[in-house]
Each structure stands twice: as C-alpha cells, then as structure tokens.
C-alpha cells in the first residue's frame, strides 16, 4: 500500500488516525522535528494558485487529508485514501499523548479571548500537560514569540493562524524547538467552546461542511472551492 497519494502535487498521508497517532508518539519520543499540514480542498486549491505556498507545504513531513473532498478526490484517482485525518482530531490525539507523558506545549493563534479559554479548557481536561506559553494571533512582531519558544523548548507547537500564515510561520521558525509543529486552523475555536463541532451524526455522514455552512451561511464562497478542486483533480489525472 502506498504511504502517500499525490493530489494536485500534494503527497497526502495514506493511513488511519490510530496509526498516525502511533507515528506521532514515536517522533515525540525521539524529539524529531516534525511539520504537519492538515490540508482540505481549500488549502489544496490555494496551493495550486500560489506556487510559493505550494513549495512551503511540500516541505512538511506529513500532509494529512483534512476534508471529505480530499477523500473523494483520491477515489476519483482510483487510489483511495484510507481515512480522513482532520487537524482537530490530530490535535486531540497530541493533547492525549502530551497529557499521558507530561509534555510541554505552546499555543499560538486565535482571538485573545479564544486562546485564553482554550488554555483554561486544556488545563482542566489535560491537567498533566505543561502549557509553557501561548499568544493570540494578533501580533505585530514574530520575534518575541519565537524567542519564547526557543527558551521554553515545547515538544508540541500548535499554530492556529489560518492558512497560509500558519504554514508559513511554521516553515520559517520550526527549528526553534525540536517539536511537532502543526497548523490547526480553527481548532482553538472548538477547544475553547466558542464554536461547536458538528454533531456525531454529521461527522459519520461526512457532512461537517454542511453543518458549518448552516451555522455560517456567509462561508458560501469558501464552500464553492470544492467543485473547482474536484474539477482540477479531474483535469490533472
């Protein structure tokens, strides 16, 4: 079985959530610097349109299929990916590992009130985790944040700045600590309780996108990326 399936020049990891969690455990144990991109169709299309961003995320150690659209595309290419691996689920797996092993983490991104609630909820639900620093996503200077990461040496750095900013930040500064660096998009909104994740039924039916649209109809333009994504995949078969 292929370890990766290439879709629009992006090598997507072909594994399960459970197996990926074991991979992450091993890399944490070895202090291996790791860059994870959790790519949905929107990110894939943006990378297609922006060659510099494509080169940035091609540097990642793992690109995971975050979105049912990626799974559909792999089937269209007759190389079906085993499972959808979302940024949120990967973050939850990392928090579970960190709690079990009393690891250090650093959180970056989201609005000030969201990051504070995220820190409070992680502290409550994962009491063995050491949160060695955090900062909201509204900063002017990157250097103080990078220096804090260098000083505290977290084993996990979760960056919720949205694409392309989060991946660009990670690619630029990942050598600041031999950590797992992961872009997690809007995951802090969910972790903080600010935004509800789709109910289990929507998740099982792969209709999280529909739930998000019904909750935020203003996101219509973002959802319209999917038809173009599938068209591009077909054109590049």
Automatic annotation (TrEMBL):
What metabolic or biological pathway is this protein involved in? Cell wall biogenesis; teichoic acid biosynthesis
Is the keyword Transferase in the record? yes
The molecular function terms of the Gene Ontology recorded here are: N-acetylglucosaminyldiphosphoundecaprenol N-acetyl-beta-D-mannosaminyltransferase activity
The enzyme's E.C. designation: 2.4.1.187
> What general EC class does the enzyme of this chain belong to?
transferase
> What top-level branch of life does the organism fall under?
Bacteria
Q: Name one Pfam family in it.
A: Glyco_tran_WecG
Cell wall biogenesis/degradation: is it a keyword of this entry? yes
Tell me the keywords, alphabetical order: Cell wall biogenesis/degradation, Glycosyltransferase, Teichoic acid biosynthesis, Transferase
Q: Which GO terms describe its biological process?
A: cell wall organization; teichoic acid biosynthetic process
Its UniProt entry gives the catalysed reaction(s) as: UDP-N-acetyl-alpha-D-mannosamine + N-acetyl-alpha-D-glucosaminyl-di-trans,octa-cis-undecaprenyl diphosphate = N-acetyl-beta-D-mannosaminyl-(1->4)-N-acetyl-alpha-D-glucosaminyl di-trans,octa-cis-undecaprenyl diphosphate + UDP + H(+)
Q: What does this protein do?
A: Catalyzes the conversion of GlcNAc-PP-undecaprenol into ManNAc-GlcNAc-PP-undecaprenol, the first committed lipid intermediate in the de novo synthesis of teichoic acid.
As for family, the record states: Belongs to the glycosyltransferase 26 family. TagA/TarA subfamily.
Under which name does UniProt file this protein? N-acetylglucosaminyldiphosphoundecaprenol N-acetyl-beta-D-mannosaminyltransferase
């Amino acid at each position: 079985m292929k370890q990766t399936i290439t879709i629009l020049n992006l090598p997507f990891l072909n594994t399960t959530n459970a197996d990926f969690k074991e991979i992450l455990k091993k890399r944490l144990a070895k202090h291996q610097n790791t860059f994870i991109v959790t790519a949905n169709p929107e990110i894939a299309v943006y990378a297609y349109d922006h060659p510099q961003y494509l080169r940035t995320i091609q540097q990642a150690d793992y690109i995971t299929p975050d979105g049912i659209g990626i799974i559909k595309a792999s089937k269209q290419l007759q190389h079906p990916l085993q499972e959808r691996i979302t940024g949120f689920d990967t973050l939850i797996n990392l928090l579970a590992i960190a709690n079990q092993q009393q690891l250090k983490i650093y959180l970056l991104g989201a609005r000030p009130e969201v990051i504070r609630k995220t820190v409070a909820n992680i502290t409550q639900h994962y009491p063995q985790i050491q949160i060695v620093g955090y900062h909201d996503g509204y900063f002017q200077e990157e250097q103080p944040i990078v220096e804090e990461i260098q000083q505290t040496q977290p084993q996990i750095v979760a960056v919720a700045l949205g694409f392309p900013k989060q991946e660009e930040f990670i690619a630029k500064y990942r050598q600041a600590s031999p950590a797992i660096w992961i872009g997690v998009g809007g995951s802090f909104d969910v972790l903080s309780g600010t935004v509800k994740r789709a109910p289990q039924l929507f998740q099982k039916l792969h209709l999280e996108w529909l739930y998000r649209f019904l909750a935020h109809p203003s996101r219509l333009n973002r959802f319209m990326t999917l038809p173009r994504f599938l068209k591009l995949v077909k054109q590049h078969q």
